[in-house]
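Convert to structure. Protein one:
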Amino acid sequence: MKVAKGACFLIALAACEAFAPQSSSAALRPSFVTPAVAPVESSTSLNMGLRSIFSRNKAPVDITEEEVRSLFFLWNDALATGDSRLVAKRYAKDAVLLPTVSDTPRTDYDLIKDYFDSFLLKKPQGVITDGNIRIGDGWAQDAGIYEFTMGATGDKVKARYTFVYTYVDGQWKIAHHHSSVMPESIAIGQPITEQEVKDLFQLWNDALATGNSDTVAKRYSKNGVLLPTVSDTPRTDYALIKDYFDAFLLKKPQGEILESNVIVGHNWAQDAGIYEFTMGADGSKVKARYSYIYVFEDGEWKISHHHSSVMPEAFLGAAPAPKVEEKVAQ
């Protein structure tokens, strides 16, 4: 009986040893035991592995302020191509653009492209003059003031901006872009006196004296209209206005206002009357009637409308004197 009990003990001990954990060496591991999983080297390695599996579309955590600012340069370079499609592609699929000179929120690719179809005709190039950057988890913000030089006219325009960037499909895109005009010149009417309105003519006259049609054309607003004295063609943009003065300046004109009537409104002013030009090329003098309407644009007064016409009586004869009815004394 004692032998039997001892045998049972030895059998049980052998069974326990067979299933007990052995050395990690594959040579000592029984064939029916699943191979051990390789140990994780560190918690950092584990985190990196999880990030690669679950966070492949998340933004790099190490984006710098300099890299955020460079995203503006990518957008600005897209403007320089003149291709509205390339600009619109800088925006995320669900982006919102609140543009500077449109009341319509642009909430998809087509609407954003439509805005830049028009804006790019001005050949804008921007520079940030004051920017403030914030960086979050998968997003970044750049907000401040930028200034654009319009290559089509040379005009400069300042505006406030906000860009919010998100990391989408492996790259940073613009999720939100809000651009607005500098409000102080709009909220408060730009003051101007009657004498200052009259002095605006002298700025235009000084531009004539340069003999440079580009300088003269830049005295007109972006949407200025010129109805000139000796051309039947309305001049409705920079190129057409410049074209008129290409010819007119050959006469070396210098003007003088003989009679002026000024009206001042809210951010606009009118000066109408009679002026006389002395043509330096031949010494001749020419009188004409004039109307100037000025608007305050991009920080200065510009000519929005200029109508100049010959004195009509020299061609049509003097108008009959107005009839005055005499009252018969009762």
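Protein two, convert as well:
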Amino acid sequence: MPLEAEAFLEEASKRSTRVTKEDVMKGQDPQGIPWSTLDTSRAEYRQNRLHNYMNYENLREDHQVQSSKQTLEQEINQHPVRQDAEMFEFENNERLLRSSIVHFQLRNLVWATSPHDVFVTHVNEIVHYSYHTETTTAVLSLERMPVSLGRVQISTMAVEESVCIAGSFYGDIVCVRVPHHLSAVDGRRECSGELVYCDRITVDDNAITNAIVIWKPRGNSSMQAVISNNDMNVRIMDIERGFTETNKFQMPWSVNYTAISPDGKLACVVGDATEAVLLDMTTGQRVGECNKHLDYSFAAAWHPGGNLLTTGNQDKTSRVWDIRTMRCLATLPGKIGAIRSLRFTNDGKYLAVAEPADFVRLYDVADNMRSCQEIDMFGEVSGISFSPDGDALFVGIADRIYGSMMQFRRSRKGLLSNLDLCP
């Protein structure tokens, strides 16, 4: 884009901070992009993006992988998907809330704790935004923490209840407790949480914290941090006991994401490999493997029912597996790049699939992933998150000019849906 056009857009972006559903109904672009004043239409720019966006693949030069892509296309075609579903409706786009991406492959930088409370990584801070008070509050700042290697960048994060955890490029983990009624705080810009833990958990030189999941085992009141690291380890750490390491699984490759089954018995581990590995959480033994992807995986998610598992890969697909038979039920294609984030609603009705940029898709689980709603926007996706009640979906967009947080609410049709879920 020419510099003159960028300057114009930057100036235009300052005129308002929020685009509402009422604005969109009047014809405004959801991201506030003034297409009528530009020398290209939205449709033309979309085609240019689809043509020019480069999807990153670690195994691009692998001849065996290239020969398997035809088979991949056949698998995708065996599971046709309708893109006419209306599951969530655009609510607003808040441009005061901008997210930052430090590592291009790590996109778990948005977490919602209610339909009106969302946390996001911005530079070296994790900030909270309240849609009630329209206030942005810093809750965790690495600038103030005694981290091991000076200036540390946040590579991933997780928030659950009152616990907020940040992971860094060098294996530092910082955890704070967030005030319970943060959404009621009005006019306070800095309200750093109470420090719970701050230390480096590995001495390995290749120690990027790739993902953090906060997990609460059934029958156990103590929350656990499940930490996936580039040093080829998954660490289970007890948050309530000062991040005491309660378990550790070593893999033969860098671990990019770990998802725990709803019953807490299995861990799905994905990383710099084509396979997704299922581990017994008690023994650490490998008990299963999903191996049909063609590149490295960076996302995984369990359906709340426990029998369905999804994995997201740089081969531009997400796969849905029945773990009882280890059979792939559906191969869902991306449009522009790798699948970087996967989330189910807590009621199990919907699956959200995020690409690195421009596209998030919602699938109807009750329809066996055969109906889909496509969210089409412009910009790198920093993360996606459903609110715990499943009523809201948040999509973070990292962009110099149009960085923002898009909020969607479950449509009336979705609220009234009472179809049985897949097993």
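Confidence is low (pLDDT under 50) at residues 1-5, 183-188, 414-423. The radius of gyration is 21 Å.
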